Amino acid sequence: MGQLSQGGVSSVVRHAVRHPLDVFAPLAALVGVLSLLLLTGCSTSASNARAPLAEETIEYRIGPEDMLDISVWNEENLHRSVLVLPDGQISFPLAGTLMAAGKTIPELQDSLTQRLRNFVHDARVTVSVEKITGLRIYVLGEVQKPGQYVVGRYVDVLQALSLAGGLTPYAARDDIQVLRRDGTSNAVYRFDYDAARKGKGLERNILLRSNDVVLVP
């Protein structure tokens, strides 16, 4: 094995001194990439964690005793304020009697349009809600003001509890239930009040539907 000359040794030493961190360059690059990935991952996780707060919008469904304004374009005689009867039906000239409760505004417009086309060419029906009285919820049990509440918009569990004056000192705060009847089936949704106040389990702070019961044991 050959020997390095004194000049060669000096050159190697000078090179090592001039670039003492060169051996760490790949490691530094790797750390930079990992840091970027971690920051991106944290951002995505935070976004996903906030998603339940922006709960999907529920389109209003007409209820019994709601007052509707129904008109047909360019037909002055076909403009009425119509009360939804307790059985959920309405009556409208030429269209007759039809079910309105449980339908959205666009769905009722479509139903009326289909019926009126037999009498009015190119019928264009507009439906709006003049007064909401069919959206009722019930808050029962260990709340300050239990009872039935008629609300003019959809509210969530926390808002319903606020309407009822809040919880009593004896409430089972971690075992609140939302009882929902949908046709022939029943569903129970659990809600933890203290967890929600801490920003946890917010996906359980659901929007209430008409006739939902919030039960606080």
Cross-sheet strand order for the largest sheet = 7-6-10-8-9
Question: What would CATH call the architecture of the domain at 136-216?
Answer: Roll
In round numbers, the mean pLDDT is: 80
Describe the largest sheet. 5 strands, mixed
Tell me briefly what this model is.
The chain is an alpha+beta fold. The protein has helices at residues 6-18, 25-50, 105-116, 157-163, 193-197; strands at 67-72, 75-83, 89-92, 96-99, 125-131, 136-141, 147-150, 176-182, 185-191, 213-216. Among the domains are: 67-131, wza like domain (wza like fold); 136-216, Outer membrane lipoprotein wza fold like (Roll), CATH 3.10.560.10.
Summarize the topology.
Layout: H1 6-18, H2 25-50, E1 67-72, E2 75-83, E3 89-92, E4 96-99, H3 105-116, E5 125-131, E6 136-141, E7 147-150, H4 157-163, E8 176-182, E9 185-191, H5 193-197, E10 213-216
Question: What would your notes on this structure say?
Answer:
β8 (176-182) and β9 form a beta hairpin. Mean pLDDT is 80; it is low at 8-55. Helix content is 29%, strand content 27%. Among the domains are: 67-131, wza like domain (wza like fold, 2-Layer Sandwich), CATH 3.30.1950.10; 136-216, Outer membrane lipoprotein wza fold like (Roll). It has 217 residues and is of the alpha+beta class. The strands form three sheets. A five-stranded mixed sheet has the order 7-6-10-8-9, covered by helices on one side. A three-stranded antiparallel sheet has the order 2-1-5, with helices on one face. A two-stranded antiparallel ribbon has the order 3-4.
